[in-house]
Automatic annotation (TrEMBL):
Species annotation: Oryzias latipes (Japanese rice fish)
Name of the featured protein: lysozyme
Annotated family: Belongs to the glycosyl hydrolase 22 family.
SUPFAM superfamilies in the cross-refs: Lysozyme-like (SSF53955)
Organism phylogeny: Eukaryota, Metazoa, Chordata, Craniata, Vertebrata
GO molecular function terms noted in the UniProt entry: lysozyme activity
Matches recorded under Pfam families: Lys
Taxonomy, superkingdom: Eukaryota
Length: 178
């Protein structure tokens, strides 16, 4: 095993800094590039574990997590919302025109609700966006619960407003045994 003493490590560090400065990049820029590479890696790892739920399977999971009637939102509305946002895909990602990104089965936005290292300003759910790209959906459900506590409620989701609001959504849980 090759080990470097402190003087060799210092030389290597200064060599990296010199190379970076020759290409016009500062230590801050190099650290930011490393963070971005780490985020891309995490997103790829999360993508490898993505799951697409079947409608009734998803409805049962939401019900078990207390989503039926949460903040006045019916289970059928939650299923309708996620059908139109992600087609029940935990790995869904959508890049928006404003530079933000929507993540996961609920398509939670990086500007307001999670931190993607680029566009997050508020991070209302206090989570990294990569946590929303997992087949373990507890974090996504907790964040969705947080979102509907705001004055907009479920209307915060465009897909719900466009496809579910004011409609008979009972078919989204029909045949699921409720």
């Amino acid at each position: 095993m090759l080990t470097l003493d402190n003087s060799q490590q210092d030389v290597n560090k200064w060599s990296r800094r010199l190379c970076a400065s020759e290409f016009g990049r500062t230590d801050f820029q190099l650290k930011r590039e490393q963070k971005m590479k780490s985020l891309v890696f995490l997103l790829l790892v999360a993508g490898a574990s993505a799951k697409v739920f079947e409608r009734c399977q998803w409805a049962r999971l939401l019900k078990a997590q207390g989503m039926d009637g949460y903040r006045g939102v019916s289970l059928a509305n939650w299923v309708c919302l996620t059908q139109h946002e992600s087609r029940f895909n935990t790995n869904a990602i959508n890049h928006n025109r404003d530079g933000s990104t929507d993540y996961g089965i609920f398509q939670i936005n990086s500007y307001w609700w999670c931190d993607d290292g680029k566009t997050g300003r508020v991070n209302g759910c206090k989570i990294p966006c990569s946590a929303l790209l997992s087949d373990s959906v507890g974090t996504a459900i907790a964040c969705a619960k947080r979102i509907v506590q705001d004055p907009s409620g479920i209307a915060a989701w465009v897909a719900w407003r466009d496809h579910c609001r004011g409609r008979d959504v009972s078919s989204y849980i029909q045949g699921c045994g409720f």
